[in-house]
Amino acid sequence: MKRKVLAMVLAGVMVLGMTGCGSADTNTNVEADAATQETEQQADTTEAATESGDIAAASEASGTVVVYSPHDADPLNAGVNMFMEAYPNIQVEVVAAGTGELCNRVAAETENPIADVFWGGGADSLEAFKEYFAPYVCANDDVIDEAYKSSEDLWIGESPLPMVIFYNKELLEKDGMEAPTSWEDLTDPKWSGKIAYCLPSKSGSAYTQLCTMILAHGGKEDGWDFIKKLYANLDGKLVDSSGKCHKMVKDGEFYVGLTLEKSAVQYDGDDTVGYCYPTDGTSAVPDGIALIKNAPNEENAKLFIDFITSKECQEAEAKDWGRRPVRNDLTIEGLPALSELNIVDYDFNWAAAEKEANIEKFNDIMVN
Q1: Does the 163-283+338-367 domain belong in CATH 3.40.190.10?
Q2: How far apart are CA 202 and CA 362, in angstroms?
Q3: Parallel, antiparallel, or unpaired: how do β-strands 238-239 and 195-198 relate?
Q4: What is the rounded CA–CA span in Å between residue 195 and residue 167?
Q5: Per-position pLDDT tens, the chain of length 368
Q6: For the chain, which residues make up each domain, given as ranges?
Q7: Could you give the angle at the alpha carbon of 252 between the alpha carbons of 237 and 24, nearest 5°?
């Protein structure tokens, strides 16, 4: 049943953009005939609705919801798949691109919004664009800690994301190099030209990494000295999408890469790569989800937000894709508790308010 449902759902997802961190599968091969498919769909809908206790809402909701998302294709499609099983009469249209690109698109469309939901991207990036979001308290608000929600209810955290250093074991062994354990290690000249890092202006996660390293090495002013040393080792090789960093390390194009825990854990069991949580301080800024101000399909957008933060969806995303649940009534096996990591005191307000200035400082380092 799972294979048939996936095919059906992906056929219904209209992918309007294919660049940046995420992409979507547009395979429309559906093996089940129409009558069988309709019967199976109705059965699955009833089951999903029964579990959520809201059969009427699932059967009556219809129309469209437009989702802007920088998520990788697999967890993105999985979440959309599950939503459309629960709400089969709602068509999901997805625009997949990088966080920065999508945020700028939301801003440009503010007079005539196209998107209904922004799903993904670091909460600091969403906070920087909060004027384009509408307040919404989701149905699962009581199981999401205040640290993972906007104080104005303009975004909701959906998965805390520790930053990690990802490395290619085969390349390190070939050159007799030890795996790095800290951001500081990456300033050693031996890593020159061997580090995959995305432009902070292109990626929300790369911007969070930038702020994390600044805060871990002297703070908002002195931390820039560390960034200058790190940039010298990038040797001008910056990646245009954060979603490429771990893949390029895996493929042997770089020895190490700065990436997210959610990306690194997908390689668990692969002996050719590994990752570490930087001992000099990582962060756990959550990916967020937000309601676009004046969304054309506001009610469906709210249903989508409620579903993504639901126990059903959060459990599946954790089990299948290694994404930490934001809900305080769920845990994920195989990952260290955040309390076991050296987490920097991440200043959301500074990261959001100074985003443009911080990116400009990084760009100045690039040209000087």
Answers
A1: yes
A2: 12
A3: parallel
A4: 9
A5: 333 333 333 333 444 433 333 333 333 232 333 333 443 443 444 344 434 445 446 668 999 999 999 998 999 999 999 999 999 999 999 999 988 899 999 999 999 999 999 999 889 889 999 999 999 999 999 999 998 999 999 999 999 999 999 999 999 999 999 999 999 999 999 999 999 999 999 888 899 999 999 999 999 999 999 999 999 999 999 999 888 999 999 999 999 999 999 899 999 999 999 999 999 999 999 999 999 999 999 999 999 999 999 999 999 999 998 899 999 999 888 889 888 999 999 998 899 899 999 999 999 999 98
A6: 2-161+286-321, 163-283+338-367
A7: 80
pTM of this prediction? Answer: 0.72
| CA-CA-CA-CA dihedral for 156, 145, 280, 255, to nearest 10 | -40
The dihedral through the CA atoms of 68, 96, 332, 215 has a sign that is negative
| Residue corresponding to tokens 């005539």 | 112
Nearest to 285 by CA among 200, 196, 207: 207
Burial letters 308-325, b for 16+ CB under 10 A, else e: bbbeebbebbbeebbbbb
Check if CATH label 3.40.50.2300 holds for domain 2-161+286-321: no
Nearest Cα residue to 119 out of 161, 80, 162, 164: 80
